[in-house]
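Q: Protein A?
A:
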Amino acid sequence: MGRPGYLTPPIFAVLAAIGYVYYTTVFVAVAGWLGLTTAAGVANAAAFTALTAACLATYAAAASRDPGRVPPAYLPDVEDAEIPVHEVKRKGGDLRYCQKCGHYKPPRAHHCRVCKRCVLKMDHHCIWINNCVGHENYKIFLVFVSYAVLACFYSMILIVGSFLHSAPKAEQLGGDSSKTSIIICGIILCPLTLALSVLLAWHIYLILQNKTTIEYHEGVRAMWLAEKGGDLYHHPYDLGVYENLTSVLGRRIFCWLCPVSTNTGNGLRFRALHDIPLSTPPCDLQKIALHSQ
C-alpha cells in the first residue's frame, strides 16, 4: 500500500479503465454508430468528453486533497457550553485520546492505520484514491462517484446503441476488432456501473442520516446495547434531512455537484440534535454519543 499522495496500482487501474472506456465509447461506439462528423455524433462525443473530464478532475481532487488533520494542539474543552456532545471511550468513559498520534481526538475523528494519522470526520480509507475520505474531501469524493455513475450509464447507452445498430451490418463496423472492443467495454462497465451505483446509494443513505461509514457500524452496536438496556438510541448528529444534506453539500443547491468542499464547520465540533447537560455522567453519554477507541 503506497503512502497518501503516491500513485499506486489501484490508481493506475482506475485511470486505465477510464481511458479504455472513453476511447471505446467515443472512437468506436459513437464513431461507428453516429459518426464523428454528424451533429449528433459531435454532440454526444463532446458531452461524454466533458463528463469524463469532470470524472478525472474530481478523482484527482479526491485523491490529492487532505481529508483533514487533527491539529496537534487540539484539546477538548468539557466546560464549553457550545459543544453539547463529547465522545468518550467505551471503556472507562475517558475522553478519546490517540496514543499513536499523541493528542486528543475531536468528535467523529478516527486514526487511520494506513495513513498513520487521525482524520477529521473520517468515513473510510479508500484504496482506489490512496487516501482517506474525511471532512475536507468527502463531498468531492461523493461528487466524483456521482459523475462516474452518470458516465457509466451514458457509456452503456452509447455502446448498446452502437452494438444494436451494427449487428445486422457487421461489415460496416470495420471488422471484428470493433465488436471485440465494445464487448470488452461492456464487460468492464456492467460490474463497474453496479458497484458505483451501490456505493452512491449507500453514501446518499448515510448523508440523509448524517452518518459516516464508521458511525453506521458503531451505531448498529450502540442500538443493540441500548435496546438490551431498555433504552432508545438516537444518532446524536442527525439534524433532519435538509440540515444533514446541507452540512455536507452546502447551502447552495446549484453548487452541490461542484468539486469544492462546502461542508459546514472546521471538523472539530459538530451540531448535535440534543443539547446534553455538562453534568451528564459518562455512562449516559455512552448511550447517545458515538463510541470509539
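Q: Protein B?
A:
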Amino acid sequence: MAHEALKAIAKQSLLLKSFPEHHIDTLLSHAIWRKYDRGETIFLQEEKAQAIHVVLSGWVKLFRMSPTGAEAVVSVFTRGESFGEAVALRNVPYPVSAEAVSACEIMHIPSPVLLSLMREDPEIGVSILAATFTHLHSLVAQLEQLKAQTGAQRVAEFLLTLCEAEMGDCVVELPYDKMLIAGRLGMKPESLSRAFSRLKPFGVKIDRTHALLSDIQVLRDYAESDPSEK
C-alpha cells in the first residue's frame, strides 16, 4: 500500500483522529512503518514496551502463554485499531505477545515521542484515554459474553460484527483461521464446529472461509436471547 494511503488510514485511527493536525504530522514523521508476514512476531510477552502500535492493514492477535504452554487469545485487532498504549506510556513490559495472523502493515509510534507531545499539549492525553477506554470496554464485553452467552451465541455475535448490512442477508469473510476464532471466543476448535452446526437453523452456512447469513435480524435475535429460556 502506498505510503500516503497508509498515512491517511493512520490519521483516521481511533488513536490519532482527534489529535490536532500539527501533532499528527509530528507523530507520523517519527513513526516506524513495517510490514509483517503471517505468523511473524511483533513483540513478546515481558519484552519492554517502547512504542504504540496502529494496524494499517491485516490482522494482529494479542495472546498470553500459560506456564503449561497453553495459548490464551486476549484480543484481535485490525485496520485503524491501536494497541499497547498503556504499557508503552508507563515504560513497563508487555503483559502479552503480539503476532501477525495475516500479512499486515503496522505503524509504530515511539513512546518517547508521544510522551514529549503530551507534556507540550495535555489535551493529547484525552485521546490516549479514549483509546484505552475502548480496549477496556472490549474486554468487559468479552467477559460478559463468556458469562452470559452460550458458545453458539458468541459465534453468532462475532459473525454479526463482520456484517456491513443491518438487515436482510449477508456474506462475510472469516478474517482469520477457525482455530484463532475459537480462541478469540473462549472456545475449543471442536466447540466452534458444533456452534456453527447449531446456527444452521438460524440461517448460517459456513463455506470454507466465508459465512452466509440468510437473515441478519433472525441471527441477532438469537444472539441477544436469554440462554435460560431455551
